[in-house]
């Protein structure tokens, strides 16, 4: 569109030369020929056809000198094609330029000069726009990279804070267990000993109340320690570390899609089953790929652990291979997984096929 607008402006520079002609038919014919050749050259821009058309238009200025008035249009198209020498035939056959009047010659020369200046300025502007566009694209790309890097840094920082928080919770849980728990246990034992050796009936009831209070405190402390410990388990990090530590002959992938608020007993169950399953795969699978998928659904948790080995996962330490779904054919490892699943109300299945071995666990959420 820009080229068409610019060419219309060049055409207006050429039009006075045609209007100064003495006759009407020849200038109009020459004008139509010039417009047709220029339009065809623009239609086939970048091809040999466009170059031939411009060359022919320039050469036609010999037998038809009035076409010299359209030379600025031909020059503009030739410059756009980056082949300015296509207008040389018009200069070579300009022997008949005497057929034009002085004002027409001045119009042609003015048109050529303006066209050349116009093209150079437009070309420079276009190059500047291209450079600015490239610079803008580079800056945008760098900003995107910087944003991505900042995001990774923030995520790493959040992860470090999260890990530090979990570590501190573990430390607090250990401190409570090792110090307060032990002191309460000693106090309970001492109270029990006092109850045994006490002969005073008046102290019997206070000692019993004291022991009940200490027992309640011990139960509360134990529950708090367990809650702290369960909250400090980052299941995603645990599964990631397990996947990263698998033997190098396996390509391990982990898909984790679950929230943060998972009960501690379910975390321990899933972590234990994944650990046992990976261990069995490393020992007994002939495959080279292990896939771990853990997802949280609205009503249940789901775990899928599979490998692509032709030999199924072993039953455990005994080294036996699962050949049926009867309990008697299972080894210690698979029975341990069943016990873990049963302890949280879950259901686990083991499937052997030509594609490998699969462990599938579902654990319903508590209402």
Written description of the protein model:
The structure is a single chain. The protein is an alpha+beta fold and 367 residues long. The protein contains ten helices and five strands, in the order H-H-H-H-H-H-H-H-E-H-E-E-H-E-E. The protein has three domains: 2-100, no CATH class; 156-231; 235-364, Histidine kinase-like ATPase, C-terminal domain (Heat Shock Protein 90), CATH 3.30.565.10. It has helices spanning 2-19, 25-43, 48-59, 71-80, 88-92, 102-197, 201-231, 235-244, 264-284, 332-343, and strands spanning 251-257, 289-296, 300-307, 347-353, 356-364. Strands 1-2-3-5-4 form a five-stranded mixed beta sheet. A hairpin with a 3-residue loop joins strand 2 and strand 3 (300-307). Helix 4 packs parallel to helix 6. The longest helix is centred in the middle third of the chain and has 96 residues, at 102-197. It is rod-shaped and about 145 Å long.
């Amino acid at each position: 569109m820009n080229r068409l607008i610019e060419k219309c402006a060049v055409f207006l520079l050429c039009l006075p030369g045609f209007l100064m002609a003495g006759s009407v038919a020849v200038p109009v014919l020459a004008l139509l020929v010039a417009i047709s050749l220029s339009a065809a050259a623009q239609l086939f821009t970048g091809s040999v056809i466009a170059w031939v058309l411009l060359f022919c238009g320039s050469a036609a200025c010999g037998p038809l000198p009035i076409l010299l008035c359209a030379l600025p249009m031909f020059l503009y198209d030739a410059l756009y094609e980056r082949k300015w020498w296509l207008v040389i035939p018009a200069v070579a056959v300009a022997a008949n330029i005497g057929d034009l009047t002085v004002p027409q010659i001045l119009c042609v020369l003015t048109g050529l000069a303006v066209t050349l200046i116009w093209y150079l300025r437009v070309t420079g502007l276009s190059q500047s726009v291209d450079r600015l566009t490239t610079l803008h694209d580079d800056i945008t790309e760098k900003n995107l990279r910087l944003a991505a890097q900042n995001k990774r840094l923030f995520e790493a920082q959040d992860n470090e804070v999260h890990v530090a928080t979990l570590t501190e919770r573990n430390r607090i849980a250990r401190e409570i267990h090792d110090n307060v728990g032990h002191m309460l246990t000693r106090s309970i034992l001492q109270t029990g000993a006092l109850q045994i050796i006490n002969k005073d009936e008046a102290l019997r009831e206070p000692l019993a109340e004291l022991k009940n209070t200490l027992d309640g405190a011990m139960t509360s402390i134990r529950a708090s320690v367990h809650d702290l410990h369960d909250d400090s388990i980052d299941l995603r990090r645990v599964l990631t570390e397990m996947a990263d530590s698998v033997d190098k002959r396996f390509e391990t992938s982990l898909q984790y899609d679950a929230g943060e608020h998972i009960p501690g007993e379910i975390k321990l169950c899933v972590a234990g089953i994944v650990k046992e399953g990976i261990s069995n795969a490393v020992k007994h699978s002939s495959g080279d790929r292990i896939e771990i998928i853990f997802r949280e659904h609205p009503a249940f948790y789901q775990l899928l652990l599979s490998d692509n080995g032709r030999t199924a996962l072993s039953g455990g330490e005994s080294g036996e291979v699962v050949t049926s779904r009867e309990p008697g054919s299972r080894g210690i490892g698979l029975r341990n997984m069943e016990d873990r699943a049963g302890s949280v109300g879950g259901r686990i299945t083991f499937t052997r096929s030509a594609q490998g071995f699969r462990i599938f666990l579902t654990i319903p959420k508590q209402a």
